[in-house]
Write a structure and sequence with these properties.
With 370 residues, the protein is an alpha/beta fold. 27% of the residues lie in helices and 22% in strands. The protein is built from 13 helices and 15 strands. The protein has a 13-stranded mixed sheet. A two-stranded antiparallel sheet has the order 1-2. Strand 10, helix 13 (288-299) and strand 11 form a beta-alpha-beta unit. The longest helix is centred in the C-terminal third of the chain and has 13 residues, at 252-264.
Amino acid sequence: MAETAGSPRYVHELRRVRGIREEERNRLEAVEEKFAFRSNEYYLSLIDWEDPDDPIRRIVIPDPEELERWGKLDASEEVDYTIAPGLQHKYDQTALLLLSDQCGGFCRFCFRKRLFMEHGREVVRDISADIAYIRDHPEITNVLLTGGDPFFLSTRKLAAVIGTIREIDHVRIIRIGSKIPAYNPYRIINDPALLEMIRTHSTAERRIYVMAQFNHPREITPVARKGLDLLRDAGAILANQTPILRGINDDPAVLAELLRELSFIGVAPYYLFQCRPTLGNHHFAVPVEEAYLIIEEAKKNCSGLAKRPNFVMSHKTGKIAIVGLDEEHVYFRYHQAAEYDDIGKFMAFKRNPVALWFDDYRDPVREMRV
């Protein structure tokens, strides 16, 4: 992506990060060799380098704990729903296009970090076959552009993709999944062509949604708010999603602040995710039941607008909502499912306080469809 005037410089090597001491940098070489690093001067400036537990640092700076042998690269088995290179179709109404294997920064907990390790293998360069598939499937009303980060593409390339999708009559919503509003809001602020593209293609009956990812309230800076305001003024609908992450937002007070601030600035909290069991992510994972209790405690200090997000696991079989606990049981419901008949299915399991994922629960005590 070409940087416009005033854009922060990107940093691709830890040795160029001034806040990291040499002895620490040496300890992180093996991590950087396995899992790529990327950030930029703006985002790095948000880190308090005197605090070794700084949450912004934890989001983007490698950690030796990433080398723990736990999880797998495709934790949700996206390969099973891949129709063509770059195209996934897991849920009837939604198709997913992987447009980029680059981001404004590489989140250390990324569930698609495999894209940054195997450049180009899953990302689509020629979307003609994907567009033909979407055109031939009238049940698809939503197309999610993701990656990587679609806003890391040039505006010209992104506009060509969106313009082509807009020619398909049954696609009413285009979603852009992006952490650029948090990682580099200057990408939005300094590119009038990007805003004009959104203004052109986000219409009264066919909206563009920007699905942002703010993980911690300190990411919501005045510059980030300006970028969000410009997207909204151009006609985009704004929403936010974040996983629950150890050391970042697993404190009810911090999570409440994040949800409240998002609601104040007009960004709808959409999903709270259970951290996927992806390779290198164990130190970020909060047990399912603990995460549920953190979220419920946070919501006590939120208005109805701030407490809207569903807490879900993006499991290989669908989005499984965690809907309740009692002394003996934890309760789940398929919020969305790969198998149509599973949507709405309700399940109860005996509690397991160390469970990190749906597969850690065994033998449901109750199943029913609602």
